[in-house]
Amino acid sequence: MKRVLIVKVTSLGDIVQALPVVADIKRAFPGVQVDWAGDEAFAELVQWNESIDRVLCAPLRRFKKTRRWDDLKAIWASIAELRVHHYDFIIDIHGVYKSAIIAFLARSSRRIGYQSQDLGERGAAFAYTGRFGPRPQCNAWHGMRISASEALGYEVEGPALYNLRLPEPVNPPFTVDGAPVAAFFHSTSKNEKKWPSNHWVAVGRELTQRGFRVMLPWGSAGERAEAEQIAVQVPGSTVLPQMSVTGIAQMIDACALVVGTDTGFVHLAHALQKRTVMIFVATSPSHCGIESPYRSISVGDGRSVPPVSAALAAIDHVYASPREPAMQVRRSAVA
Q: Where would one find the signal peptide in this protein (predicted)?
């Protein structure tokens, strides 16, 4: 096998969690070229993966909003780039119309996608010459690894490898006097996924007492207002300036702890091997959660609001180790 195309168009968290498929394929087929096709909005994230040979992207999301002629021309240009190489296999691990169209336009006689009941949009099935097996009984992220392995005929081995290397920041993402930094990703794209502001305040105050400095990133005017509301009540906390995706990633990489709801940047924190606590209010932790012993953990059942005590227990957990009790680590972590 010489060349494989992976199609995963959006969104940030889903793309992060799909990246281990690349490492799996490279391990199974030494020397294979692996390309990735997706939306331009997330191209920089894919480019951080050192194992991907070519990143193909188009401004699909932006064109849907603007309908600008320049964006349409960029999409047409991307189709020509997509068709430069012939692929032994195309693996669509997205399963909607736009990913299926990308798979169909690329050059290959073997285009593999989900079974109809597992597709995000059933009409996407038109593009495929073969299908993955039934969706396995595991979380969505491991499921993508299994689906790709079934399509290409190898066994999934070992933990997920993200192989991310961020560009070096021009300037430090924040300035503190040697204190460990905790980033709070309090905002989400859906209101039902939010954790109450007073809960964030309570956790922020506790972490401040433990010696942490709390940083509050944001992406919209509404999110900034929420961050400011939290910051007023958490001593020493900082509302960060608006940042690019790369800037936020570099900020995460400089943190000691990341706490947030089920959102893309928290998945990125997990992939960057930061101590990470993900809080679930309205989505399924068993399907979308993160888990790495004493490093990443999911909190909540996805049907109710987790209490502050659950988040603090999770923070203790990611600062513990099999040989050291959580309370001891909690004190020494801020020394």
A: none
CA dihedral sign of residues 323, 202, 278, 225: negative
Tokens matching residue 251 = 């900020």
232 within some domain: yes
* Phi and psi at residue 106, to the nearest 5°: -70, 160
Residue 165 lies in a domain: no
Same domain? 195 vs 313: yes
pLDDT at 327: 36
Those residues whose C-beta lies under 8 Å from the C-beta of residue 57, and which sit 6 or more positions away, are 37, 38, 39, 40, 42, 43, 46, 78
Taking CB atoms within 8 Å and a gap of at least 24, the contacts of 65-71 are none
Are 293 and 224 members of one domain?
A: yes
Distance CA 181, CA 208 (A): 10
C-alpha span between 192 and 228 (Å, rounded) = 20
> Are 113 and 127 in contact, with CB atoms under 8 Å apart?
yes
- Residue type for 209, please? Q
The structure tokens listed for 57 are 């992207």
Average pLDDT for 281-291: 96
Report the DSSP beta bridge partners of residue 279: 261, 299
Let me know whether 283 and 200 are in one domain: yes
The residue type of 156 is V
> Is this structure's pTM higher than 0.90?
yes
Both 111 and 191 in one domain: the answer is no
Note the pLDDT tens digit of each residue in 296-318: 999 999 999 999 999 999 999 99
* Beta carbons within 10 angstroms of residue 55's beta carbon: 18
Q: What domain range is 12 assigned to?
A: 3-152
Tell me how far apart the alpha carbons of residues 63 and 49 are, in angstroms, rounded to a whole number: 26
